[in-house]
Amino acid sequence: MEQFFVYIIYSEAIDKFYVGQTGNIDNRLLFHNDSEKNNIWTKRGIPWVLKTSIPFNSRTDALKAEKFIKKQKSRKLILDIIQNGYIK
Predict the structure, then answer these.
(1) Distance between CA atoms of residues 50 and 57, nearest Å
(2) How large is the angle between the packed helices 75-84 and 59-72, nearest 10 degrees?
(3) In the prediction, which pLDDT does 55 show?
(4) What is the span of the domain harbouring residue 73?
(5) Residue 36 belongs to a domain with what CATH number?
(6) Which residue has the higher pLDDT, 76 or 85?
(7) According to the model, what pLDDT value does residue 50 have?
(8) pLDDT at 85
């Protein structure tokens, strides 16, 4: 069974977190840190560091969790997730 992940990366350069979902964390982190292939806003934050990832059994569940985290617009929530390793 394929796993999907919600991941949180951090850029010290711009002091920002980014939340996303993927089926392959290693490839996604490489994308965020590739100044030639990355044409989304995360390009300005290179280098990005993976802070945590949370596994899900389906892309649907990962997308729901990603949407929930982003909708909260809460740095405190993100820091809690990083510290605890899960969404409360």
Answers:
(1) 20
(2) 130
(3) 95
(4) 4-84
(5) 3.40.1440.10
(6) 76
(7) 98
(8) 80
The total of structural domains in the chain comes to 1
Report yes or no: 4 and 22 within 8 Å, Cβ to Cβ. yes
DSSP state letters, 5-37: EEEEEEETTTTEEEEEEES-HHHHHHHHT-TTT
Distance CA 39, CA 14 (A): 17
Can you tell me the distance from the alpha carbon of 30 to that of 14, in angstroms, rounded to the nearest whole number? 18
Length of the chain in terms of residues written: 88
16-71 pLDDT, tens digit each: 999 999 999 999 999 999 999 988 889 999 999 999 999 999 999 999 999 999 99
Which residues, in sequence order, are CB contacts of 2 under 8 Å at separation 6+?
Answer: 23
Select from 88, 81, 83, 78 the least CA-distant residue to 17.
78
Tokens in use for 66?
């990603």
